[in-house]
Write a structure and sequence with these properties.
Structural class: alpha/beta
Low-confidence stretches: 1-6
Mean pLDDT: 86
Shape: rod-shaped
Largest sheet: 29 strands, parallel
Distance between the termini: 56 Å
Number of helices: 9
Length: 602
């Protein structure tokens, strides 16, 4: 919407008004500032007096024509009077055009403003051309209305440029402009297209609460300070980038109503509470990104670029402003409060990302090499040594581990967070991520998140019963929830060794029992009946741990692993030992096979 400037009242003027054309309805009349030494403004001076005044002006002179209404010939005459013969361009000192009105085109091309340039509340009814102009001191276009095109191409602002609450009813072009101080466009309205192509902002660029009702282009722009777009509204298509920002790109609270493409090489990107009402693609380098409470109504892609952005001619976009950055990795630090159903992440670092509170996290799409946090390294040099099985974890789990009084050594090296979390909050997040990987047909990738889910259930004293925690603890101890084949094989080897030792000590008889036939032969011959029996196996009384007995015990144990009977004669104790091993050892073998399967299945 337009920010129309009210007509200044007589009491609000800081200059003596001309007063020409007063009427009962308008007792003030013309509000133009009197020309020094006269009682009329430049527009209402007699021709001879105007010519005398203009003749008296020299390049670099201070002028005050606030409130004056300029026609094209009048403005041309004023600028010609201030033209520097050495350069052929007008040169002004302090220039005050506060509340001035420019009826036709206002041509300020190649003008040098050595002093302050005040165009506050001015109205440009035609084209406002400031091409290649130079502002060496502060310039103010606050509340200015540009009804025609506003052209600031190749302009050099050596100072703070204030366009706060300005209204651009037609196109606004700042292509190739250089802002060496802060650029302030707070609450500015761009009703036509806004173009900032190849614009250099060496200070902070403030577009807070600006309204872009036409297309917005910030291609190849360079920001040495912060790029502030908080609460800005982009109603039509926007193209932000490729651009380089040495500071922060702030989009928090911004609204994008049409398709948008962001290609940014920046240290930080803040998108808290942004609203994306159409498709969007965000391609980033170097940035640390915060998307807390953002709203995605359509698919949105956040992707990291491994190589610098490319100019139309094929050359890479210069990134000298980020030369001190350690890497071009893009790190996402928060998705809290986001509905991730339409979100696609590609090659993003999620090691420090806050995910608790994210909605529909099971529908998020992770492509490329999206990385997560990990557990501490195994510490063999301390006693007792602490071993950690490597797996991907959430940043919130690291925060929770650090906060625990009995935290294992190694977790205390983590960066602690400010949000209090626990297993009850972490388990659903792990479960959602596991499902997201499984739905993407990445079963091995889902394994770590299944492990994390089970870990949180095992430690959750609120929603998990004591019996269930005990069962989960056994599952974890024996096979790492069916994901650690080495652990299951270790227990299998230990169980086999115990079985062998027990069989050698108590399960094998000292001698193999021999069969005996017992019967009675009738005196006159005839049919003979024999009863064949076997003596009960006897425990050994001598040497028990011999090579022969080891061979027999190993045979029994190996058959037990595959749930078979060896057929070996055993003592009563040995029979029970074999029965126990035939139950436990196949289970351990099955857990090892399951763990391998979970890591390699597709």
């Amino acid at each position: 919407m337009s920010h129309l400037s009210p007509e200044p009242s007589l009491t609000s003027l800081s200059w003596v008004p001309c007063g020409h054309g007063t009427t009962p309805e308008d007792p003030v009349g013309c509000r133009g500032a009197d020309v020094p030494g006269h009682t009329a403004c430049l527009a209402h001076l007699a021709d001879a007096e105007r010519d005398a005044y203009l003749y008296s002006l020299t390049p670099g002179a201070d002028i005050d024509h606030s409130g004056t209404t300029f026609t094209e010939p009048l403005l041309d005459a004023l600028l010609n009077a201030l033209r520097d013969p050495a350069t052929g361009s007008p040169r002004l000192g302090d220039a005050r055009f506060i509340s001035a009105t420019f009826q036709g085109n206002a041509e300020f091309d190649f003008v040098t403003f050595q002093g302050e340039a005040r165009f506050r509340s001015a109205v440009f009814k035609g084209k406002a051309a400031f091409g290649a102009a130079t502002f060496q001191s502060d310039v103010e276009f606050r509340s200015t209305i540009f009804k025609g095109d506003a052209v600031f191409q190749a302009v050099i602002f050596d100072c703070t440029a204030n366009f706060t609450v300005a209204t651009f009813q037609s196109g606004a072009r700042f292509d190739g402009a250089t802002f060496q101080g802060d650029a302030r466009f707070k609450e500015a309205t761009f009703q036509g297209n806004a173009e900032f192509v190849s614009t250099a902002f060496q200070g902070d660029a403030g577009f807070v609460s600006a309204a872009f009702q036409g297309d917005a282009r910030f291609e190849l722009a360079a920001f040495q300070g912060d790029a502030q777009f908080e609460l800005a509204v982009f109603e039509r298509s926007a193209s932000l980038g490729p651009l380089v920002c040495a500071g922060r790109v702030k989009l928090s609270g911004a609204v994008f109503g049409s398709p948008v493409t962001l290609s940014l090489a920046a240290r930080h990107l803040e998108c808290r509470r942004t609203r994306w009402s159409s498709t969007a693609e965000i391609r980033l380098r170097y940035a640390t990104v915060d998307f807390a409470q953002a709203v995605f109504e359509y698919p949105l892609t956040i992707a990291a670029e491994a190589e610098p952005f490319v100019l139309p001619g094929g050359l890479p976009v210069p990134e000298q402003a980020l030369a001190d950055a350690l890497s071009a990795t893009v790190q996402l630090i928060s998705l809290r409060g986001v509905d991730a159903a339409h979100l696609v992440l590609s090659d993003i670092d999620l090691a420090m990302c806050m995910l608790i509170g994210t909605v529909h996290l099971d529908q998020i799409q992770l492509e490329g090499t999206c990385s997560f946090n990990d557990v501490p390294r195994t510490q063999w040099r301390r006693w007792p040594p602490v071993r950690f099985t490597q797996r991907r974890i959430l940043f919130e789990e690291r925060i929770w581990r650090v906060s625990e009084p009995a935290a294992a050594p190694g977790w205390n090296a983590a960066v602690s967070g400010t949000v209090r979390v626990g297993p009850a909050q972490l388990a659903p997040v792990y479960r959602a991520l596991r499902k997201a990987f499984e739905d993407g047909k990445n079963e091995p990738g889902a394994a770590d998140f299944y492990y994390g889910e089970m870990e949180m259930r095992r430690h959750d004293r609120t929603n998990t019963t004591r019996a269930e925690r005990g069962l989960l603890s056994g599952y974890w101890l024996l096979s790492g929830y069916g994901l650690r084949a080495s652990r299951a094989l270790g227990w299998l080897a230990a169980a086999m060794l115990v079985t062998i030792v027990l069989l050698m000590g108590f399960g094998l008889p000292k001698d193999s029992p021999k069969q005996e036939a017992i019967g009675t032969v009738p005196p006159g011959g005839g049919k003979v009946t024999f009863e064949i029996g076997k003596a009960d196996p006897q425990n050994p009384t001598g040497e028990r741990f011999t090579g022969e007995r080891f061979d027999k015990a190993l045979n029994v144990t190996l058959n037990s692993v595959v749930f078979r009977s060896s057929g070996q004669d055993l003592t009563t104790t040995g029979t029970y030992i074999e029965m126990t091993s035939r139950v436990t050892e196949p289970v351990l073998l099955g857990l090892a096979v399951l763990a391998v399967r979970n890591r390699v299945k597709r």
